[in-house]
Design brief:
CATH architecture of the largest domain in chain B: 3-Layer(aba) Sandwich
Structural class of chain B: alpha/beta
Largest sheet of chain B: 7 strands, mixed
Helix content of chain A: 40-55%
Number of strands of chain B: 22
Shape of chain A: globular
Oligomer: heterodimer
Radius of gyration of chain A: 20 Å
CATH architecture of chain A: 3-Layer(aba) Sandwich
Largest interface: A-B, 48 and 41 residues
Strand order of the largest sheet of chain B: 11-10-12-13-15-14-20
Radius of gyration of chain B: 24 Å
Number of domains of chain A: 1
Number of domains of chain B: 3
Order of helices and strands of chain A: EHHEHHEHEHEEEHEHEHHH
Number of helices of chain A: 11
Distance between the termini of chain A: 59 Å
Shape of chain B: globular
Number of strands of chain A: 9
């Protein structure tokens, strides 16, 4: 089987960006830290953030069932640790974008739950005034660049945001998320190539939740270790336990340092799992109930963090309960807003197509 | 018998060139593969190789001679054992005649205009009176437009295949790398889907990319990013996002390159809300519209004609010559029939108007300049005057620009019409390679004139 590529060019680095080619390396993910008093505040914030995404998505699923949300609705339940950990690793001004399983990313980057939920219900109070829906939401204020409905199309766009950062020399980086389904799209590798060629400040994050719709990774990918997909063009890759927010944060810190340091792109593979169907109408025939149940009971990112927090003694059951209530209130408020916000005025049909000159 | 070497055609559209330099002298021996001369076309400088072994008998044209037509004898090569006297016995016209060059397209060919720039005057009330004019090719006008905008706005950059070191596959970006450097004039890998998406991302990030497609045929690889990402995101974001980007390059019929490299995409892009689609004819419009496109905060598809790149026109000498997007131009006044065309077809329409004039029919020619949004006001005003209309396009008629124009005129000016609107366009086939079939696939002035006569019931 394939062996780790020897980094023989390590000592032969030349200065000019035109000739320097990054050395292909597989990185070992750093071990997640223990929870102590020093990082207790962060751990509690991660817990609150992941719980907010979980509860928000559960509510969205419920509202979909009630006919309040239409079309496609892709829930992020099970994958919360990925965006929560990465969000903690970046800075204000860094940009991010993802595919259509995007609600978690938006909440993590600080977009208002009310605006996200109102977009799901197609109301004027939504981030896109109800014109985009679940798959197409953006926030210039929070530097969230979508919400893209075409599998893989966001990857070159993410590389382009990285290009803009480098062009401007603003020190910002681009987080470009995609799934294991996108990972077989040709344009993803076109983007990898240009990002490596031009040393763009981009972290490519593949959220490997094991299934592209109903197709298990091994049924679609000749190379299932997706973090190795940049090897041939020298993009260092790292595989991370995407069910452990502390592991994600630790690996994210390393990747951010690498990319912000001008060393070119990195590829992170987050091994994760989605509990719900691909979208709301999923036959669930491609995996067993037992498999889902096993991940839920053994690897759930929220339960895992909760246990660690309680075991470390930095917070008590009652403290976590208080966070639960706080999150529940936010989600309830969002759901109410999303139902009470009016539909867009018919006059909105013909607005926002072009910038008037 | 000595061999006559003739001026070679070094590109599908080349009809003449300059003999820049002789690399051999009379009396010198040459072997197959030896370089004998440097030929300069409007696109490139290339070396010509000897095919036969022999001795250079006579150089027929001096170095530096310009405008040598393809197939003109340039040198006589003496073969084994022959001496200079052998040349005396050569029959006149012994030059091996290559296949007769097909008429590239029944259009004002690039080269003809380069030879003696018969610059067309602009019937224009848009320019300040007394504006000085300069003769310039479409190619140089496009380059100047980009250079001026890049000087003016640091966020503008050019990206595409061979735009930098090669100076542009069609030499549109000549000199830009030297002036603006590699940060702003960027050679991409051959990866249309990827670099188009990347440029869209850069535009989302606030930059103003100009994406050059070597030809729009290759943009089909990227059409998802152009339509799904660039055109729709403003709407899908409720107006938050913008995509100030220009997609430009050669579009439409080319010469003898067959089905995959020769077709018009105007109606493909004009179909889509969220895009502006521009397709200029003259050099002045190419410059003015490209400058407007680069400044436009919306995605603009800018369709150029490869066959027009070398065509020269008068261009106003102004510090900042812009032409508004969405405004058609009456290229020739007339009273009996309106001919609406865009891009290279405007030239055919003007030719047709000459033919019609000799038959006593006064044709008005409207140059659309922009195909989305259409300047219906100008078209309807013209049709209101002439009561008859013929549309012309290079592309297929089905669901084409002419179909759209006909529908709009029918819906909005039915009572003005004295005859049904008639369409002239490309044959409904993939573009054939064979010279005769290619000619049959492309509209020409005669076909336009015949159609115009028909709608005049003449």
């Amino acid at each position: 089987m394939a062996k780790a590529a020897k980094s023989k060019a390590d000592g032969a680095r030349s200065g000019g960006s035109k000739t320097a080619r990054p050395v292909t390396r597989r990185r070992k993910a750093p071990p997640p830290p223990a929870i102590t008093k020093a990082n207790a505040g962060e751990a509690l914030e991660y817990y609150r953030q992941m719980l907010l995404i979980r509860r928000f998505e559960e509510k969205a699923g419920q509202m979909y069932g009630m006919g309040l949300i239409g079309g496609f609705c892709h829930l992020y339940i099970g994958q919360e640790a990925v965006v929560t950990g990465m969000q903690a690793a970046i800075e204000e001004g860094d940009t991010q974008l993802t595919s259509y399983r995007d609600h978690g990313h938006m909440l993590a980057c600080g977009m208002d739950a009310k605006g996200v939920m109102a977009e799901l219900t197609g109301r004027i109070g939504g981030y896109s005034k109800g014109k985009g829906g679940s798959m197409h939401m953006f926030s210039r204020e929070k530097n969230f660049f979508g919400g893209h409905g075409i599998v893989g199309a966001q990857v070159p766009i993410g590389a382009g945001l990285g290009f803009a950062h480098k062009y401007r020399g603003n020190g910002r980086i681009s987080l470009t998320y995609f799934g294991d389904g996108s990972a077989n799209q040709g344009q993803v590798y076109e983007a990898f190539n240009m990002a490596a060629l031009w040393q763009l400040p981009v972290i490519f994050i593949v959220e490997n939740n094991q299934y592209a719709m109903g197709t298990a990774v091994g049924r679609a990918s000749a190379q299932t270790e997706l973090y190795r997909r940049g090897e041939s063009i020298g993009i260092p890759g790292v595989q991370v336990d995407g069910m452990d927010v502390l592991a994600v944060k630790a690996a994210g810190d390393v990747a951010v340092k690498h990319v912000r340091g001008g060393k070119g792109p990195m590829l992170m593979e987050m091994k994760t799992y989605r509990y719900r169907g691909h979208s709301m109408s999923d036959p669930a025939k491609y995996r067993t109930k037992e498999e889902v149940q096993r991940v839920r009971s053994e690897r759930d990112p929220i339960d895992h963090l909760r246990e660690m927090i309680l075991a470390s003694g930095v917070a008590r059951e009652a403290d976590l309960k208080a966070l639960d209530r706080e999150v529940k209130d936010i989600v309830t408020e969002a759901a109410e807003f999303a139902q009470n916000s009016p539909e867009p005025d018919p006059s909105e049909l013909y607005t926002d197509i072009l910038v008037e000159v | 018998m000595p061999v006559t070497i003739t001026m070679p055609a070094l590109s599908p559209t080349m009809t003449e060139g300059t003999l820049a330099n002789w690399l051999v002298a009379e009396g010198e021996s040459v072997n197959p593969g030896d370089m004998i001369a440097e030929i300069e076309t409007d696109k490139a400088t290339m070396e010509v190789e000897a095919v036969d072994e022999g001795v250079v008998g006579k150089l027929l044209v001096p170095a530096g001679t310009e405008n040598i037509a393809v197939n003109t004898p340039i040198v006589i090569l003496l073969l084994d054992g022959e001496d200079a006297a052998a040349m005396d016995n050569m029959p006149a016209g012994a030059a091996p005649q290559a296949e007769p060059e097909p008429e590239p397209a029944p259009a004002p060919t690039a080269a003809a205009a380069v030879a003696a720039p018969v610059a067309e005057a602009i019937v224009e009330d848009e320019l300040p009176p007394g504006t000085e004019m300069v003769t310039m090719t479409v190619r140089d006008a496009l380059r100047d437009a980009m250079a001026e905008e890049m000087r003016h706005d640091e966020d503008v950059f050019l990206m595409g295949e061979e735009v930098a070191e090669y100076q542009g596959a069609y030499k549109i970006s000549q000199g830009l790398l030297e002036e603006f450097g590699g940060r702003r004039v960027i050679d991409t890998p051959i990866t249309e889907h990827g670099f188009t998406g990347l440029a869209v991302g850069a535009a989302f990030g606030g930059l103003k990319p100009i994406v050059e497609f070597m030809t729009f045929n290759f943009a089909m690889q990227a059409i998802d990013q152009i339509i799904n990402s660039a055109a729709k995101t403003r709407y899908m974001s409720g107006g938050q996002m913008g995509c100030p980007i220009v997609f430009r390059g050669a579009n439409g019929i080319a010469s003898r390159v067959a089905a995959q490299h020769s077709q018009c995409y105007a109606s493909w892009y004009a179909h889509c809300p969220g895009l502006k689609v521009v397709s200029p004819y003259s050099a002045a419009d190419a410059k003015g519209l490209l400058k407007s496109a680069i400044r436009d905060p919306n995605p603009v598809v800018f369709l150029e004609s490869e066959l027009m790149y070398g065509h020269a026109f008068e261009v106003p000498v102004l510090d900042d010559h812009t032409v508004p997007i969405g405004k058609a131009r009456v290229a020739r006044q007339g009273s009996d029939v309106t001919i609406v065309a865009f891009s290279i077809a405007v030239g055919w329409a003007l030719e047709a108007a000459d033919i019609l004039a000799s038959d006593g029919i006064s044709a008005e020619v409207v140059d659309l300049r922009t195909v989305r949004p259409l300047d219906l006001a100008t078209i309807l005003q013209s049709v209101g005057k002439t009561n008859r209309c013929v549309t012309v396009e290079e592309g297929w008629l089905g669901c084409g620009i002419g179909a759209e124009l006909s529908a709009c005129i029918m819906e909005q000016a039915f009572d003005d019409l004295d005859a049904p609107v008639s369409r002239v366009g490309g044959a409904d086939v993939p573009m054939p390679y064979a010279a005769n079939l290619e000619k049959l696939s492309v509209p020409d002035a005669a076909a336009i004139a015949a159609t115009a006569k028909a709608v005049c019931y003449r």
